[in-house]
Fibronectin-binding family protein (Gracilibacillus halophilus YIM-C55.5), 211 residues
Amino acid sequence: MEPFVRVDQYQYIRKQLLELVRGYQTANDKSVQGALKTMALERMFSLFPAMTKEQEDILKQVSSVNEKEEAERFLLKLKSYIIPFQITEDEIINAFPKMKKLKVPALQSFDLTNCSYISWIDQSKLLKFIVTRRDGYVTGTYGTMEYSQKTGVCAICKSVEKTGLFLVKEKGKEAGTYRKKGNYICVDSQACNQNLTSLSPLYEFLDTLRK
């Protein structure tokens, strides 16, 4: 069967399973346990409004998950149905038309089955690059990253992680002036991707940078 699960959807399902297992550990009432599974399945089904019978049968296997080890086995099986982040080196280069001598990291350095977006730091320019695909189009954003030792809520994944202030600079309305826009995001993009359970906050964050 063809892959049908986006990376963010996989992470959402993983989160639901972890909550389900925790609920099973604290609830002894079988009716409560049954309700927890029903809610978890309904939330998972809502991710795939046009799912096929085969896809539904795969997700229904959650009904047999009670323990952490069973959840891990299910997630390992589901991982084979993940749609990897689709990107080519040329698409990345074209996403930054004004950037001269762009250093694109080897795509093999990313685990694209764990990426809803890709990001890297160009130490020579002291810039952080973010690349996403939205409605079939690849877009690129870059800016500076001001690091701190504090944890905070990431504007992309909405989780509490070690964050830094990501800022983009753009020309102001008056000649010779500039303005900066940004927010705090995860320092570790890999952790951010693992925490990201919906593409909406990622797109919302990027949209605020372009307004």
About this structure: The beta strands are 118-122, 127-134, 137-153, 160-171, 178-186. The CA atoms of residues 85 and 112 lie 5 Å apart. The first helix runs from residue 7 to 26. The chain has two domains: 7-79, 89-210.
